[in-house]
Design brief:
This is TRIM2_3. This protein is of the alpha+beta class. α2 packs across α3 and α7 (226-251) runs antiparallel to α8. The termini are far apart.
């Protein structure tokens, strides 16, 4: 009963309301509630607002005696609760006769001593004698238990951060290996498909050779057929014997009329059977059969039998060529020799270059192209630096047809089955313009939008997808230092030709952290639209770059990592084209039959970022916010 009373007093009146442990260095608040000094310091540090904090028991506000006082100094300034200390000492029933706590840690080096020190250099619990004798080096940092709480929390926090970093590193390793494994699976499947196709070719070739061989054998059999010759000869002989028997029979007859009748038919019978003998084509000369094979074909077959079909190469996914290759497979170093011609990216042929630079005019600003569309036999480009829409001929370099000025102009796209185009203007007052291209460029309509629209792409059903970037006014001059939690947004809207928003794809799934990491301030870089209404958008994060496919319901259908910085993206003739900044190539992905790379294009004389990519009419062009636009012809 006495022990229970003591425990109740200790738990109800002598325990800290924050840590729930017996009071350590108890400090008495003005509201007569007592806290551990360390718990009080942490409470002040975490909940201090306008130099006030609230008691955790009755929520009474306590004001600081000085605005410059630290949390630790403020906590130590409260009076010590001496009564609590006396009561704790009085009811310490768990103390042994030797004066050592039952929960005390005995020193392994000095069993008679209780450990009351911790060395933060060696991370060991020690006694005072150990601290004096064995932990005096510069790397050691020994502190008494009552002074360890703050530093221990700091060290535990550091250990926790290190563990989190290691977990993240492990997850990154797994994520990268999963990506590699997916690429390997695709490569294996491509090789399997190629081998199956090769087997089909060999099978068809074997059937063709067998058929032609049977044709040769049939011809050999048909040259001389003794049984057929014998059968035909016997038929002629039987017919001649019949005529002979008739003549012999008529010789003994007395009727002259009957004899003359038979005699009149004899020449015809003799001639008929003579012709039949001649038709057999029998010669007195001996004959033989010879086969003359195609020597070129035979030599080619002999050569192919000794040649390898191909070789397997383990290469990096972003390499354009392969040579003799070494790789580690199942912890074994394997060398693959090249016995087929090296495969390389196809080099596209440059067709046209538009370079609108200042020509002797000091005040003219160099062009900065941010958008382009092919319209009829003309190229309509957006010069963002000079706020102009410019139209060029698509066959003559730098031959401008006409232009017009629009403040803040940025993106452009064609209108469905119409000579007009839509132009975005995310300037001081964001607007959407509809321009006529008939005869000369002119404004048909102008719509003020409440969002700043940049890139624009045409969707089916007379709708358009636009990329919207926005940021708080305070972020204007320090954009690079802001993150999403401070109000920066980047999202996609679906609008009609009049600028009315039909659907809104918020940044909640487009721009928040994904499996590839946190996004940049403006992560949506370029986009294109598929015939089924899906939107392909290139996204860049702090650690990776990828493309995603979003359907009309706002769901991400798939995400594809190309192991490079994905810039401009375009769709044409069942394929997705992506410009890769580091490799300086255009990767082509097939949409039908599963998303997989089909080819790679090099763009000669192109060294830009490729932030926008347009593919149509067997032409490919890249716009990268410079004063030059190059057009290439797809082979």
């Amino acid at each position: 009963m006495q022990r229970r009373l003591v425990d109740n007093i200790a738990s109800d009146h002598l325990s800290c309301p924050i840590c729930k442990d017996p009071l350590q260095d108890p400090k008495l608040l003005p509201c007569d509630h007592t806290l551990c000094c360390e718990c009080l310091t942490q409470l002040i540090h975490s909940s201090r607002r306008y130099n006030k904090f609230s008691c955790p028991v009755d929520r009474r506000e306590i004001t600081t005696p000085s605005y410059n006082i630290s949390a630790e100094e403020w906590a130590n300034s409260f009076p010590t609760d001496d009564l609590a200390i006396v009561l704790l000492q009085a009811i310490a029933g768990d103390v042994t006769t030797q004066g050592k706590s039952k929960n005390a840690i005995l020193c392994t080096e000095h069993p008679q001593n209780v450990c009351d020190f911790f060395c933060f250099g060696c991370y060991q619990i020690i006694c005072s004698e150990c601290a004096v004798e064995n932990h005096r080096s510069t790397e050691c940092n020994c502190k008494k238990f009552k002074n360890c709480a703050h530093l221990a929390r700091e060290k535990l926090g550091d250990a926790s951060d290190e563990i989190v970093n290691l977990i993240s590193q492990g997850q990154d390793i797994v994520t990268k290996e999963i990506g590699k494994d997916q690429l390997l699976l695709q490569s294996r499947q491509q090789i399997k498909n190629t081998v199956l196709r090769l087997k089909s070719i060999v099978y068809n070739f074997e059937k063709m050779v067998n058929r032609k061989s049977l044709d040769i054998l049939n011809k050999v059999e048909s040259v001389v057929n003794v049984e057929e010759l014998q059968k035909k000869t016997e038929e002629i002989v039987i017919d001649l014997k019949r005529v002979r028997d008739e003549i012999e029979n008529l010789k003994s007859q007395t009727s002259t009329k009957d004899m003359l009748t038979v005699l009149s038919n004899v020449p015809e019978n003799l001639q008929k059977n003579t012709d039949r003998f001649n038709s057999l084509g029998v010669s007195d000369d001996p004959i033989e059969i010879k086969l003359e094979l195609n020597e070129t074909f035979l030599n080619l077959c002999d050569k192919l039998l000794d040649q390898p079909i191909g070789s397997v190469h383990v290469v990096r996914a972003d390499k354009l060529y392969f040579e003799d290759t070494e790789a580690t497979v199942c912890n074994q170093r394997i060398k693959f020799s090249s016995d087929v011609l090296p495969s390389c990216a196809l080099e596209l042929e440059p067709v046209l270059q538009i370079k609108d630079e200042p020509s002797g005019q000091e005040n003219k600003i160099a062009a900065r192209f941010t958008g382009l569309t092919l319209h009829g036999h003309a190229i309509i480009a957006i010069d963002n630096a000079n706020f102009k829409v410019k139209r060029f001929r698509d066959t003559i370099t730098d031959n401008i047809i006409d232009d017009m000025s629009i403040p803040g102009v940025y993106g452009i796209t064609n209108i469905h089955e119409n000579d007009d185009v839509l132009v975005t203007s995310p300037g001081t007052q964001s607007r959407l313009f509809r321009l006529s291209t008939y005869e000369s460029l002119s404004i048909i309509s102008e719509t003020v939008t409440d969002k700043a629209y940049y890139d624009i792409a045409r969707l089916p059903d007379f709708a358009y997808a636009v990329i919207c970037h926005s940021r708080p006014r305070s972020a204007f001059k320090k954009r690079a230092n802001f993150d999403w939690s401070r109000g920066v947004t980047s999202h996609i809207d679906i609008i009609n030709v009049d600028g009315n928003v039909l659907k809104h794809f918020s940044e909640s799934f487009l721009c928040e952290p994904t499996e590839f990491g946190d996004p940049f301030i403006m992560p949506l870089k370029s986009m294109c639209c598929l015939p089924n209404g899906a939107i392909i958008v290139s996204i860049e994060t702090k650690t990776n770059s990828f493309i995603s496919c979003i359907n009309q319901n706002g769901r991400v259908k798939w995400t594809y990592n190309l192991n490079d910085i994905s810039e401009g993206v375009s769709f044409y003739d069942g394929k997705i084209y992506v410009f890769l900044r580091e490799s300086q190539v255009v990767r082509v992905l097939s949409v039908e039959g599963g998303l997989k790379p089909t080819s790679t294009f090099k763009l000669p004389h192109y060294i830009g970022d490729g932030s926008s990519l347009i593919v149509c009419r067997n032409l490919l062009t890249v716009i990268d916010k410079t004063c030059s636009i190059k057009l290439y012809k797809l082979q």
